[in-house]
Write a structure and sequence with these properties.
The protein is α/β, with parallel strands linked by helices. It has 4 domains: 5-78; 99-203, no CATH class; 235-509, Rossmann fold, CATH 3.40.50; 513-605. Helices cover 38% and strands 18% of the residues. The chain has a 5-stranded mixed β-sheet. Strands 14-15-16-13-17 form a 5-stranded parallel β-sheet. Strands 18, 19, 20, 21 and 22 form a 5-stranded antiparallel β-sheet that branches. Strand 18 and strand 19 form a beta hairpin. The longest helix has 21 residues, at 468-488. The radius of gyration is 38 Å and the shape is elongated.
Length: 631
């Protein structure tokens, strides 16, 4: 048995232990463990470690740590009832494990330091969300700040990383770089020991079709877990007011304006593009006159699905390319509504907006901070826009021009004439029609019928003088309108091929080559003096004109094309195929002597002058009124 000596040290009795006590027994460790005051325990630890060292035992601190670990295991094994959370809240009780979780916050008993507070406010997980598209799990947290309970969805990349978890401070959570590691451990343990009782729910970060589930947000039991910047837009897609009131005002707008009928149908058509295998396309309302009802028409289109207030569902062009791309991917199968094209223009009046990038339906592939690749965003919807000018400029590629239905609006032919009244009504009554239409599209029989209607319209439109992509967009709008007319506007006439065809571009007008040819002919006419080698030309020479052929010095042709934004090689290739330039061998140019110097020129055949045609009535009137100019 150990030999014990007792001596007085500062009015306290201190037990002196032998080497055998330290190696074979647990009395010294039990004595130190029994001290609950953190400060006194640290003092005692230093003293006992020093006493042990004096008799040659150097491992006192490590042995005490092992003793503490053993006591922890014993407490866990012998615990009859879990340590539950004690919160005044609407949330379920959870097993708090080794933590004390109550209305005062989160505390942890440390065998070295005693009871320590790691968070001064209560915060607990109450459900796990698994994203349907990505499979990523997120945690829905509840926390109390200033007496009010809040909820926030947090990625596990944030919650279980000490560097990232401090982001929660932006939401009002009591966390710092000092407590970050302890909070990570807290959340990990709480989720682990409550895994069987924490509800696992499906979540989605976008709108539109969800395979096997339905159409978001009209799916019960699915939670939105996407970017919080889009939370407001997600919440905007809901029903409000009276459905019949909306039907009445929408029917009135359709009857008064073909443009309003097209724009409204294009809003519904967004939900048809993916199931019918279409591509995104634009419908753009533009006009320099104010009071034409362009923005109100956009609000009417938005009211199909949700709150039409600017900034709720409707966005503006005051955004970056990445912002537009992410918004399109979030909307997915709902229309993307953008107001005021002029907000995208730079100081030189040039629009920074790229139609082709959104019309592709696929975003840019981007890397992540950790070295991986983000999921490439995709979308299949319509993009409805407004502005004071066309959305594509004259030199835009055929792909961009092809994907836009441009509709000019004027004060004499307003889209919506009584804008104040219409906007006031749709701001209070919205969201009903889109919900009903989307749910119908989840029925196979309805989709099969829609596909047949679409194919018939597409075939008919392709027989005219328009491109396939323009025909596809128009057929999608016609199909949507034919479906919604009996559903919501019973008794009204559906949109016809003739009505929409007036806004479709011809094959010739879509061609970038044709537009390039028209431009360079205008450019030659505007600079005709530069093509004269006589005395009247005292300035720079651009070439010469001989027998209806303009010989344009190659460098001047290149400058003219680039300044207007045309692809020089593409235009030259088109001109050669159409036999509108005279070439030499494989080249697209030929030599011509100008001012005595032989230079390479683009030999452009100028269009023939068509004789003016006058009817017999015009000629008779001219003779009778003695108007010689007409003759």
């Amino acid at each position: 048995m150990a030999e014990e000596e007792v001596k007085e040290v500062e009015a306290e009795v201190v037990t002196v232990y032998t080497m055998e006590d330290y190696i074979s027994g647990d009395k010294p460790y039990a004595e130190l463990y029994a001290e609950k005051d953190p400060f006194k325990r640290k003092q005692k630890l230093i003293q006992m470690a020093d006493d042990a060292s004096k008799i040659g035992f150097k491992q006192f601190r490590s042995m005490f740590k092992s003793y503490v670990d053993m006591q922890k295991r014993n407490r866990q094994e012998n615990a009859d009832i879990s340590n539950v959370t004690m919160l005044t809240s609407p949330y379920m009780e959870l097993d708090a494990g080794k933590y004390t979780v109550d209305d005062d916050g989160i505390s942890l008993f440390n065998d070295f330091d005693g009871m320590k507070t790691i968070c001064h406010q209560p915060i607990i997980p109450f459900e796990i969300l698994r994203n349907i598209d990505t499979g990523e799990e997120k945690v829905n947290l509840a926390y109390r700040s200033r007496g009010i309970w809040h909820e926030i969805i947090v990625s596990k990349e944030v919650l279980y990383n000490a560097r990232n978890i401090t982001q929660l401070v932006k939401c009002g959570v009591d966390i710092s770089s000092e407590t970050a590691k302890e909070m990570v451990s807290y959340f990990q343990e709480i989720e682990a020991i409550n895994r069987d009782i924490l509800p696992l729910k499906k979540s989605v970060g976008r709108l539109g079709f969800i395979k096997g589930e339905g159409f978001s947000p009209y799916v019960d039991g699915i939670t939105f877990d996407g970017d919080q910047n889009y939370g407001r837009m997600f919440d905007a897609v809901h029903s409000e007011g009276d459905f019949q009131t909306w039907i009445d005002i929408a029917a009135e707008c359709r009857r008064k304006s073909v443009t309003a009928k097209i724009f409204l149908a294009a809003s519904f058509a967004a939900a048809l593009i993916e199931p019918l295998g279409g591509l995104p396309f634009f419908v753009h309302l533009w006009g320099v006159d104010s009071g034409t009802g362009k923005t109100v028409a956009l609000m009417l289109a938005a009211s199909v699905w949700g709150n039409p207030e600017i900034g709720e569902y409707i966005q503006t062009f005051n955004s970056t390319e990445v912002g537009h791309e992410k918004t399109a991917a979030f909307l997915n199968n709902l229309p993307f509504l953008i107001d005021e094209l002029q907000l995208s223009k730079d100081s030189h009046g040039r629009s920074r907006f790229d139609v082709y990038k959104l019309a592709q339906g696929v975003g840019k592939t981007r890397g992540t901070k950790t070295g991986g690749i983000e999921k490439t965003p995709t979308w299949r919807n319509t993009i409805l826009t407004t502005g004071e000018s066309p959305i594509v400029h004259g030199s835009a590629g055929a792909g961009a021009v092809n994907r836009v239905i441009d509709i000019e609006c004027s004060a004499d032919h307003a889209v919506i004439s009584d804008g104040m009244r219409v906007s006031g009504i749709v701001k209070k009554n919205y969201g009903w029609a889109g919900k009903m239409f989307a749910r119908r599209l989840t029925e196979p029989a309805i989709l099969n019928a829609a596909m047949e209607i679409y194919n018939d319209y597409f075939k008919e439109l392709c027989e005219g003088d328009t491109t396939e992509k323009q025909a596809m967009a128009a057929a999608m709008i016609l199909t949507a309108d034919l479906m919604i007319t009996p559903l919501f506007f019973n008794g009204d006439e559906p949109l016809t091929v003739k009505e929409i065809s007036q806004f479709l571009k011809s094959k010739e007008s879509v061609s970038a080559g044709e537009r390039g040819y028209q431009y360079i002919c205008d450019w030659v006419a505007a600079n005709s003096k530069r093509f004269s080698c006589g005395e009247e030309n005292t300035g720079e020479v651009y070439g010469t004109i001989v027998d209806d052929v303009a010989y344009i010095i190659r460098s001047k042709f290149s400058d003219a094309m680039q300044k207007q934004g045309f692809d020089e090689r593409a235009v030259l290739s088109w001109l050669k195929v159409k036999n509108l330039i005279i070439t030499r061998g494989r080249n697209n140019t030929r030599g011509k002597r100008i001012n005595g110097i032989n230079v390479e020129c683009v030999a452009l055949k100028l269009p023939e002058i068509e004789p003016e045609f006058y009817s017999q009535a015009d000629l008779d009137a001219a003779i009778n009124e003695d108007i010689p100019d007409l003759l």
